[in-house]
Amino acid sequence: MDFQNRVGHKFGTGGPATDQEIAADRRERLRKLALETIDLSKDPYFMRNHLGSYECKLCLTLHTNEGSYLAHTQGKKHQINLARRAAKEKQDATVQPQPQTSSGPRKTVKIGRPGYRVTKERDADSQQKALLFEVEYPEALERVKPRHRFMSAYEQKVEAPETNFQYLLLACEPYETIAFKVPNMEIDKNENRFYINWDAQRKVFTMQVFFKDREVQDLPALPQRSGSTNLAFHGGGSMMR
Questions:
Q1: CB neighbourhood size of 168 (10 A)
Q2: Average pLDDT of 33-62?
Q3: CA–CA gap between residue 173 and residue 108 (Å, rounded)
Q4: Number of other residues whose CB lies within 10 A of the CB of residue 172
């Protein structure tokens, strides 16, 4: 480094440079290099205020010119703040909840209604009425079994509700759900009275339902109202309530 033209030294004689002079020369060289390679318009922390000076939004420092700001960006303070900001953004990214990737309920293209057969039966001993349902699902999906449930006449919205009937619903993908209108009687679920079978080879669902009269149960007694009371008045009379 040539410092022969410094004040207090004769021409041709170069004295040793001080630490301050070496640091100033280093900052100047870094400033010139940064001006040639860095585009300040893409720096998110570079801002010019209304006074014409420049600010670093990351370190909250004020600079008189672009070279001073560029020299600041190469300094220790700015680099430490950059590292802290990167660590904080990384931490925030790991804490944020992951978006739900569920595709929602599965949708299956329906292929129509299955074929079925309903047979009326009666027990020879007890004369108990029964219905035998046989529904064919030849195109049923693998590992899918038909499902069933009973629905009240007031739960469905297709027909006007009738108190004497209820509905038996059978569903198996990819077929449409079918419903049978059956008597509104209690289902006998005792042993050998409620039979369900799914033949995976023939793809036939069989269900036998026995009905029994609903037992009439007495309603619980209502609480008695308090008895009448006589309210006496100072006038010598009384009032019944």
A1: 19
A2: 83
A3: 7
A4: 22
